[in-house]
Amino acid sequence: MPEALLEMRDVSKTFAAPGRQVHAARSVSLALNAGRTLALVGESGSGKTTCARLIMREYAPDSGELLFRGAPIDASSHRNMRAYRQAVQMIFQDPFASLNPAHTIGYHLGRPLRLYGHGRSRAERQAAIAALLEQVKLDPELVGRFPHELSGGQRQRISIARALAVGPEVLVADEPTSMLDVSVRLGILNLLNDMKRGLGLAVLYITHDIATARYVAEDIMVMYAGQVVEWGPTESVLGQPAHPYTRLLLSAVPDPDRPYSAGVGVGAELADIDRIRREAAAPQPLAEEVHPGHFVRPIPARV
Ligand SMILES: Nc1ncnc2c1ncn2[C@@H]1O[C@H](COP(=O)(O)OP(=O)(O)OP(=O)(O)O)[C@@H](O)[C@H]1O
Ligand SMILES: [Mg+2]
Predict the structure, then answer these.
(1) How confident is the model at residue 133 (pLDDT cuts 50, 70, 90)?
(2) In what order do the strands lie in the sheet with 227-233?
């Protein structure tokens, strides 16, 4: 495999909550590669957004490091950080909150173009805005409209266009479809696939919906209680899930290709799964490779 564009190496982040510590990310390692999507799946509170925020440098890691093109990110260098912020763009869950109601679509797309020096003249910028709207399959006529005049799906396309405006290499999409009407979700996922294939972007797709991971992601990581419990090629992980928590997630998904028995036996393992959470501060067991490139972290032994 070629050198990863972006890597998290053994990154941990702990938050202080009243009376306890929340291990939101425990020694998380992941790699994002050009032209590929990595899905990060897990239940609410498992640490997915924490990973996204660590990548976006909204949080500094307690330990571990982030590498961009193989080099540690130098937070003390303004130039370095600006280049990183340009290269790594985020799409948020809520397309309603992420656009300013007081500004037109043209403003939202023109601003990043201006800030990052794409399109020097006004005419150049207008052409670039029209091209961005076409890229996300929206009518260029929308340029003068305000966010409230657009549907949720259209707004999410604008968020994607805004991310593309700066010419990113990595896209972090945190639950990009969960607030959208079911009927428009597939369109957004198709768009992410287009960006990956057409522009060669590296995509981190965060979701609690393991079924959609199969549709967009070559690789998948399953998170539970701040830990990555299973990871590898999507086909292998979803086809031959080795961790009880992965099986639990899959058992909740109606899938015509999988026998219903996929979830059978999970009940007996629930107590084991729960132990991962309760022993969140204990050292993690080493991962085992169960199929080529497909790893699982064994559940800590009962004490
Ligand atoms: N800024 C913060 N301060 C304190 N605790 C936090 C903070 N951010 C996250 N947490 C805690 O860290 C844990 C992981 O949260 P995170 O938002 O990463 O989960 P998530 O997997 O994105 O969940 P969801 O699917 O609900 O978005 C949770 O217990 C959460 O309460
Ligand atoms: Mg989240």
Answers:
(1) very high
(2) 88-91, 170-174, 202-207, 37-41, 219-224, 227-233, 294-296, 288-291
* Domain assignment present for 265: no
Residue 290: CA count within 13 A, CB half-sphere: 20
Q: What is the rounded distance in angstroms from the CA atom of residue 219 to the CA atom of residue 248?
A: 19
What's the distance, CA 217 to chain centroid?
A: 10
CATH number of the domain that residue 191 is part of: 3.40.50.300
- Give how many domains the chain has, as a whole number: 1
DSSP conformational letter for 187: H
- The Å distance, Cα 222 to ligand 2 centre, comes to 14
Q: Is residue 269 part of a domain?
A: no
15: in domain? yes
Average pLDDT score over residue span 28-38: 98
Closest CA to 280 of 19, 18, 23, 16: 23
Q: Give the pLDDT confidence of 1-23 residue by residue, as tens digits.
A: 568 999 999 999 999 989 889 99
Distance 2 CA to ligand 1 centre (A): 32
Q: Tell the residue nearest (CA) to atom 16 of ligand 1.
A: 47
The answer to the question of residue 200 being in a domain is yes
Indicate the top mutation candidate among 13, 21, 40, 48 to test ligand 1's pocket, ranked by most ligand atoms within 8 A of CB: 48
Domain range holding 129? 6-260+275-296
